């Protein structure tokens, strides 16, 4: 009798443990889905801002047709539905690269850079990128926790029984770029000086006085003959003798 009671208690405990693990896995999966919806909202906002940015650039640089078309094609690919997080990340990476080329083209147009609409769109786009980065960190943290539960024992047994699999991370490729380095320090010796700069003296500056000529060597002195001697000073004449004084009377 006691044996059956013990077995029943053990079975009840196992069922309660399995239910707890299952509920925890479902909760993590829902958190992952919710985090992905937040990313999706910010991505849609990003796509709208990029479309408006392209229209603004087109008004000032319509002849940059190739760059504008590349951005619009990458935007259309990123907006395509039914993509997994990994596929979406690849599409967003391509869009970021095309957008970078568009911004580089815009730098050549001072009127465009000073346009208020263009500046506002850039600020909104920067703010949206920051929100996407924050949402991506939250999403990836939940994905990591879910995948850990799915892959570790004994929770992986429950996950396998109910077909709860791993989730994909969202990592945008090509997002990080090397910062632009501006060096105002001393000029490197390997870099050629600018035009009009020769020998460390700017063009038009008075030349430094040349050094005194070196003394001739002994061989050069012998070949050129004996050096002329200085003329001896003329002998100084003796003063005339003094006249005798006449005797007193």
UniProtKB/TrEMBL annotation:
<dbReference type="GO" id="GO:0016020">
    <property type="term" value="C:membrane"/>
</dbReference>
<comment type="similarity">
    <text>Belongs to the LemA family.</text>
</comment>
<dbReference type="InterPro" id="IPR007156">
    <property type="entry name" value="MamQ_LemA"/>
</dbReference>
<dbReference type="InterPro" id="IPR023353">
    <property type="entry name" value="LemA-like_dom_sf"/>
</dbReference>
<keyword id="KW-1133">Transmembrane helix</keyword>
<dbReference type="Pfam" id="PF04011">
    <property type="entry name" value="LemA"/>
</dbReference>
<feature type="compositionally biased region" description="Pro residues">
    <location>
        <begin position="236"/>
        <end position="249"/>
    </location>
</feature>
<keyword id="KW-0812">Transmembrane</keyword>
<protein>
    <submittedName>
        <fullName>LemA protein</fullName>
    </submittedName>
</protein>
<keyword id="KW-0472">Membrane</keyword>
<feature type="compositionally biased region" description="Low complexity">
    <location>
        <begin position="203"/>
        <end position="235"/>
    </location>
</feature>
<feature type="region of interest" description="Disordered">
    <location>
        <begin position="185"/>
        <end position="249"/>
    </location>
</feature>
